[in-house]
Amino acid sequence: RHNLAISASFALPWGIQLSGITRFISGEPVSANTGLDLDGDTINVDRPAGLGPTVGRGDVQQQLDIINAYRATINLAPFTMDRIAVKPPAKSIDIRIAKRLDLGQGRRIELFAEAFNVTNFVNVTGGASNIRLATFNLPTGAQDARQIQWGARFAF
Prior knowledge:
single chain, 1 helix, mainly beta
């Protein structure tokens, strides 16, 4: 998948430092397997014939047809197209502001505040890769929501 990270740092007046990082990660294809050893090689991540290791890119209709044909052989309801969709992209903006205070004799204090995922964008995670499960490709969690912290560092 594509991953773009942009970072910058700026020296502001009065000894204040402002920095940030922005990350954009494109949606990734979905891993797909049966969770069973279909071919007798003792590896339990086999797929129905014709299905690649991931779904969601390429001929998605053919991938869905293969999955649903396999699910029909074990009396499971078919999936709809949205179940094999590529996971949504992830994005995050983090910022930090810091002020350094020199106390003399090599001692200093740095005061700082940090904010992570400033836009509070929901970056979903998880999802079963087993096409036999009803939870196949359903998000099971999310990365952390917006978080803000502050602190101080004393050096001597």
